[in-house]
Write a structure and sequence with these properties.
The complex is a heterodimer of chains A (151) and B (292). Chain A is built from 6 helices and 1 strand; from the N terminus they run E-H-H-H-H-H-H. By secondary structure, chain A is an all-alpha fold. Chain A is elongated, with a radius of gyration of 22 Å. Chain B has one domain. In chain B, helix 2 packs across helix 5. Classes of the chains: A mainly alpha (151), B mainly alpha (292). Strand 1 (13-14) of chain A pairs antiparallel with strand 2 (158-163) of chain B, so a sheet runs across the interface.
Chain lengths: 151, 292
């Protein structure tokens, strides 16, 4: 293990008079995209989600969900819809319903870091272009895995 | 209990978690998942799915602010998340496989989560935090990757520059953290921060902020695993995330004014209680303990 000497009282600082620190473009872009998409995702999740919770009208009826929400996910879908879920069609095919629209909001939130990484990669230097590129591929794999592997 | 009472109870519980978590300095997910598993009738699959969405949403809401201030740093994040994201996905896959492949899978998950909570409790109790660690040597990989950063620290009236080290030692730790996050539906800031701060030598504010950024990526990747298995129900996710989103805003305002130690101790007692309840319920599910 590399030596890591801890001296809580001492601070290495430079530019004491400066208040403005130039923020690295890749960090700034990452943060800015995340800020915007998070708001979009939260709105997309909350508005239909609240309507669904209040009215109970959705792809899955509220009463049915309540009856079987103690079952493990595979048994729940088998019991409620008679299907085996693997992939995203269970909500993407029913976007006219409020509960599935709400899950689409979750999708927007869950894809936000990927879009931030893509934005940051454009601004990154060559070493970090490679690292962020690997991250993007891994993230894409996480999304596409059910479609590619089919189980 | 009528269904809407569960939904309301979920909303008020997460509202409470949202308020006390910033005051106590803990993440919301580490309280939500074990408490919901211990006291609510939902399946562990749906709870972990909701826990991930909750931890991810909380991190997504705060990380941009830190990134634009220079505190959350992609230079630190990129090399560690390259490893942790794989383990986060793997954790999600194995976590769902355990509950769906074994008749008593949910009991194993509850016992596992209870044990993890004991570790979290010990981490909070004993791990020291160092505001500005001094680094004497930088490992060759960190040097090559030029991991550095700077931010203006108002309490010092100075710009603080920093570098990090021990990247290779930190990588296995982040792999484990990613796995636990995916498997149990946690944010795992409790583990990220000490590794970033004490092992890699990142200043505490940088460690906390970069941990938020790491959670956004790890938990988002694991979210896709749960979504692909249908382990997400709007009826559970919406009140939970709404509650913690409102609560966190209230909690953050209170935390700026005062952070009484009593709240931290209260949260730790709740955490310990939830750990005991989860283990007990898990053992009961295996027929090894009487019902509570």
């Amino acid at each position: 293990m590399q030596e890591l000497e801890v001296k809580p009282e001492t601070v290495e600082s430079v530019g004491a008079e400066l208040r403005e620190v130039p923020i690295e473009p890749m960090n700034y872009v990452f943060g800015r995209i995340m800020e915007i998409l998070t708001i979009v995702g939260l709105i997309a999740m909350f508005i239909p989600g609240i309507i669904y919770v209040i009215t109970g009208k959705g792809f899955l009826s509220r009463e049915i969900v309540v009856k079987y929400w103690g079952l493990k996910a595979s048994a729940f879908w088998q019991k409620v819809m008679g299907i085996k879920v693997f992939g995203y069609s269970w909500f993407l095919n029913h976007l006219g319903t409020m509960d599935c629209l709400s899950i689409l909001g979750v999708c927007i939130l869950a894809v936000t870091p990927l879009i931030c990484l893509i934005g940051a990669e454009i601004k990154a230097d060559s070493k970090y272009k490679i690292l962020i590129g690997i991250l993007i591929i891994e993230f894409l794999f996480a999304i596409a895995r059910p479609i590619l592997m089919g189980h | 209990m009528i269904w809407w009472m569960w939904v309301l109870a979920l909303f008020f519980m997460t509202l409470g978690i949202g308020i006390v978590a910033p005051i106590a300095g803990v993440g919301g997910g580490v309280l939500f998942t074990p408490l919901t598993m211990a006291f609510y009738p939902f399946s562990t699959d749906f709870i972990r799915g909701a826990g991930l969405v909750m931890a991810m949403t909380s991190a997504l809401s705060s990380a941009p602010h830190f990134a634009k201030k220079g505190l959350a740093n992609l230079r630190i994040l990129a090399p560690v998340v390259v490893v942790s994201i794989i383990f986060s996905i793997l954790g999600g896959i194995i976590g769902l496989w355990v509950t769906n492949a074994f008749p008593q899978g949910k009991s194993y998950i509850k016992i596992g989560l209870g044990c993890i909570l004991f570790v979290v409790f010990l981490v909070y109790l004993f791990s020291k935090r160092v505001e500005f660690p001094q680094i004497t040597h930088i490992d060759p990989i960190s040097e090559k990757l030029d991991i550095h950063g700077a931010w203006y620290e108002p309490s010092l009236g100075k710009v603080v520059e920093y570098r990090t080290t021990n990247l290779l030692i930190a990588l296995p730790a982040f792999a484990g953290v990613g796995f636990i996050a995916g498997m149990f539906g946690l944010g795992a800031g409790w583990a990220n921060v000490p590794v970033l701060n004490l092992v890699m030598g990142a200043p505490l504010k940088v460690a906390t902020s970069t941990s938020m950024m790491i959670i956004t990526i790890n938990d988002a990747a694991a979210c896709w695993v749960y979504m692909a298995r249908g382990a997400m129900l709007a009826l559970i996710i919406v009140p939970s995330v709404l509650g913690i989103t409102i609560g966190a805003r209230i909690g953050a305002r209170i935390a700026v004014k005062s952070r009484p130690k009593s709240i931290k101790y209260l949260v730790m007692v709740i955490m310990l209680f939830a750990a005991v309840m989860d283990i007990w319920k898990g053992l009961h599910g295996l027929g090894m303990a009487p019902p509570i």
